[in-house]
């Protein structure tokens, strides 16, 4: 069985396809097998806080797969399902820390084999994917967002080969960190120099783990915008000089 990893694209569920909540502590998620054409049998489930989760694989009544043998796995480790109803198999998980996060798959075997995978992960952080390009002496602004509310935000930068925590109290005239809301954090880097270029990232701490949003800053010289203009002017000067020299040479040759 090939398991899903965090780098694979999954369908993150902000709301489960089938859900029930009681005091915010119990969630149910279901995948229909094989499901309508084009339906993904991979589900990403975003969890920020401790909760009890029930994962269910339900066989479509019209499926050709009858009376399958059902196996549940966490990664490559076989686990037993906790309940079974007609054409439905479920496991119940008490998620209190990051150790229970990861991939959970149900495998149905009969005339054919079909599998479905749930991927439990902490909320992903939304950050700018493209490099932030600005100029010396300007101010760079970086923003991170989350659909869930973190317990804390932390900003880092890469100095040499080591990550450094950005602390406003240490660099009072250089960095400014503020919260636009409980789900959004913003970093301002003042009076940019070329040494400020590099990797930056925000880290959100949730009850069930941490999540990062990475960004890259590029700082250009203030002369950079003028380079194309300077190049054009230089070409014009060279061209005019060439023409003048040619005319002078032609006149002398004529005399």
UniProtKB/TrEMBL annotation:
Q: What is the protein named? A: EMB protein
Positions of the UniProt region annotated as Disordered: 1-22
User: Where do Polar residues bias regions lie?
Assistant: 1-14
Q: What stretch or stretches form a coiled coil here?
A: none
Provide the GO biological process annotations. Answer: axon guidance; dendrite self-avoidance; homophilic cell adhesion via plasma membrane adhesion molecules
InterPro entries assigned: CD47_Vset, Ig-like_dom, Ig-like_dom_sf, Ig-like_fold, Ig_I-set, Ig_sub
CDD domains of this UniProt entry?
Answer: Ig
Domain of life per record: Eukaryota
**Which is one Gene Ontology cellular component term of this protein?**
axon
Q: Name one GO molecular function term.
A: cell-cell adhesion mediator activity
Q: What taxonomic lineage is listed for the species of origin?
A: Eukaryota, Metazoa, Chordata, Craniata, Vertebrata
Tell me the ranges covered by the Ig-like domain, including all copies. 36-117, 123-221
Q: Which organism is it from?
A: Oxyruncus cristatus
* Keywords for the protein's UniProt record, in alphabetical order: Immunoglobulin domain, Membrane, Transmembrane, Transmembrane helix
**Database matches in PROSITE patterns:** IG_LIKE
Which spans are transmembrane here?
229-249
Record carries keyword Membrane: yes
